[in-house]
Amino acid sequence: MTRPFRLGVLTRVYAPDPSPRVLHDTLALIDAAEALGFDSAWVAQHHFGSETGRLPSPLVLLAAAARRTRRIALGTGVIVLPLESVLRVAEDAAVLDALADRRLQLGVGAGFEPDVFAAFGRDFDTRAALQAEALVSLRRALDGAPLGPAGVTLQPGAPTLTTRLWQATSQAETVARNGHGLIVARTRPEQDGEAALVARYRGAWTHPRAPRVALVRAVVPGDDAASVETALGPDILRYAERLARAGGVPAPAPADVPALLDRFGVLRGTPADIVAALHADPALPGATELVVQVQTASTSHRDALRRLEAVATAIAPALGWTPAAAGSEAASLTSDPIPT
What averages of pLDDT result for each successive group of 10 residues across the chain (340 residues)? Predict the structure, then answer.
C-alpha cells in the first residue's frame, strides 16, 4: 500500500548516567518501532555524553539493529562528519548497508559543540568548510571513484547509498544542489522559520528523483499538557541552563517551563492535542517523513515505549499514516509530501 507519508523515530540515546544499559534499551526501542509499523529509526551521535546523549558510534549500534530487524530503515541523525575519518565512515557505512540489505539512511552534519571539536583537535570555526570538503570525499568514495595513487575503490561497494544521504543544516539550497535529503530539527529555542527552510530546499531542487524532507518533532503524549510539563520540567531546565551558560545569558526560571517547551517545539498533551498541533504545523506539508522524538534525558525505557505506541496507534493514523506491514519492504523515502 502506498502511504501518504512515512513515520520515523529519533532517539538521542539519552540516559542520566553512562551505563551501557541505554544501548540495549535503544536496540529494544528500534525493535518496538519496527513491530509498530514505523518506517524508520534514527540515532543521534553525541561524544563524551554531551547533551546527555550516550552514543558516539551510531554505525556500530545500527549494525546490531540491522541483525535484529528486517524491514525498518536505519538512519544516522546525524554523524558529525568534520570529526571523522571520511574514508572510514564510507567503509563502515558500506558494510552496514550490506548487512542491512540497503536500509541505511546516512545523515551527516557539521556539529555545534566547541568543546567536542577541541577534544578532537579540530577547529570549530572552520567546521562548515571541513564539512563541505568531507562531504565531497564521502560522495566520491561511495560513488566508487578511484582513491589514492593506486586507484583503489571502496569495498564493499555502496553505489546506491549516495541517494540515501541526508544533511542537517540551514543551507537548504546547498543540500538541494547536492541532491541529498534535508533533516529539519529544532535543537535551539531561538530556531524558527522551518517552513521557510523546507520551501527554500524544495524551490532549489532540480533533480529527477523526488526531494526528501525529514521533519523532526518532539512528541510527548500524556494525560494532559500539565502532567507532561511536570515530567519534562527538570530535563528542559537543565538543558536550557546549559545553553544559557554557553551563551553567557541568565538561566531560565522554573516557571518558564511551558514557555521553554514551546520555544523548543515540544508537542505535548493528549494524542488529540498533539494531532491538532501537527495539523497546524506550517513545516509539515513540505515534509515527506515525520520523525518523532519521544524521550528526554530522564525518560524511562517503559515510558518511551508507551509514548511510541501512542504515536503509532493514536497520533500518526489521525494524520493519514498507515503502519507498514511486518513483511513489507523498507520505505523508499521518495513519496509525496504529507497532506494537510
Answer: 78 90 97 98 93 92 98 98 98 98 98 93 96 97 96 96 97 97 79 87 97 97 95 89 74 83 93 97 96 94 97 97 72 47
| Per-residue exposure over 232-268, b if at least 16 CB sit within 10 Å of its own CB, e if not | bbebbbbbbeebeeeeeeeebeeebbbebbebbbbbb
Give SS3 for 267: strand
Residue 289 contacts residue 4 (beta carbons within 8 Å): no
Cell 541523525, located at residue = 77
d(CA 89, CA 164): 14
Answer positive or negative: Cα dihedral of 132, 176, 208, 82: positive
With beta carbons less than 8 A apart as the criterion, state whether 274 and 228 touch: no
Residues found in the chain: 340
Q: Which residues pair with 8 in a beta bridge?
A: 40, 291
Q: Are 158 and 94 in contact (CB under 8 A)?
A: yes
pTM for this prediction = 0.93
- Which residue type does 339 have? P
